[in-house]
What we know:
The chain has 78 residues and is mostly beta strands. It has one helix at 3-10; strands at residues 16-20, 30-37, 43-58, 68-75. It has one domain: Roll (Archaeosine Trna-guanine Transglycosylase, Chain: A, domain 4), CATH 2.30.130.
Amino acid sequence: MWKSFFxxxxxxxxxxxxxxxxxxxxxxxxxxxxxxDPENDMKPTGRTCQREIIHILKGERWGLKPGYxxxxxxPVRD
Length: 78
């Protein structure tokens, strides 16, 4: 995830992500988000965070491309 988006996720301002549905995402799945630097060949910065999927918007409706989903997520609690 690009640094600017990652920062917004960590700060609690961004709680969704649009992505290709290439992993058969399910509610309750955990995402391991990895921060990358788009100005440095997309190299990982070493920062990560975990989020739990709480809602999935699928389909071609609502402006989503075919095969894509909008994932809503929340922080993973220990």
